[in-house]
Amino acid sequence: MPPFTVLHVCMGNICRSPMAERLLALAVRERLGRRGQDPAGADELLHSHSAGTGGWHAGEEMNPPAARQVTARGGDVEGFAARKLRSEHIDAADLVLTATADQHEYVVALRPDAAARTFVLGEFGRLLAAVDTAGLPPSGVTPQEVYDRGVALVAAAHAARHGTSTLPTDDLDDPWGRGDQCFGRVADEIEETVHPLATALLP
User: Fold this and answer.
1) Distances (CA, A) of 198 to 7, 30, 139
2) How far apart, in whole angstroms, are the C-alpha atoms of residue 121 and residue 40?
3) CA-to-CA distance for 105 and 123, rounded, in angstroms?
4) Which terminus of the chain has fewer Cβ atoms in its 10 Å neighbourhood, N or C?
5) pLDDT tens digits for 4-55?
6) How far is the C-alpha of 27 from the C-alpha of 9, rounded, in Å?
7) What is the distance, to the nearest Å, from the Cα of residue 2 to the centroid of all Cα atoms in its chain?
8) Which tens digit of pLDDT belongs to each residue from 49-82?
9) What are 100-136's pLDDT values in tens digits?
């Protein structure tokens, strides 16, 4: 049984999507800890990874101010290497979260069948608030339980956006080349979605 897989997408895969990748993984570890479970088992429940629409930075580490945000919040930046988005990354993902609406369009153009599980990150955060989690499969800490709940959560979020469109505020600003204050604000916005996501998966 594969873990529930979340793919984060931005432009160069050194700032926004790596922060989202590692901050979601951190949020899941924290949820396990609150449930009295071993946080080391998080990788068996959720696979959070990322890629960029462009390959200019392939192989590079996370941008230093992005890494500082992750580590300051308790996350881990070890082993990260930027990469270009490929269609097989999308195919293997149960949920795709993009930094902007433009990147959402890029993903869906590459893989039209992924439209129902692809969201702008801020959009997904808004839709989560509209999902009745009581209607999801029971929560648990086995890979199968988290996977089933995650897939149902994505389907419910997709149903909740019927007839709606993304908002300009759903996009994450590109902090590349800007100061730590900008990176901090973007990381805060990422947490506004990944924390409720982790809570919904592991209430």
Assistant:
1) 14, 9, 12
2) 26
3) 14
4) N
5) 999 999 999 999 999 999 999 999 999 999 888 888 889 999 999 999 999 9
6) 18
7) 17
8) 999 999 999 999 999 999 999 999 999 999 999 9
9) 999 999 999 999 999 999 999 999 999 999 999 999 9
pTM for the model: 0.97
What type of residue sits at position 94?
A: D
Q: Which domains does the chain have, with CATH numbers?
A: 4-201 (3.40.50.2300)
Sheet of 95-98: strand order equals 46-52, 4-10, 95-98, 118-120
| Cβ-proximal residues to 47 (8 Å cutoff; 6+ apart), any chain | 2, 3, 4, 5, 6
Q: How far is residue 156's CA from residue 153's CA, in Å, rounded to a whole number?
A: 5
Phi, psi of 120 (to 5 degrees): -70, 140
Q: Is 57 exposed, middle or buried (0-12, 13-18, 19+ CB in 10 A)?
A: buried
For tokens 């931005």, name the residue.
10
Contact present, 92 and 114 (Cβ < 8 Å)? no
What is each CA distance from 104 to 65, 132, 145, 181, 184, in whole angstroms? 25, 25, 28, 26, 23
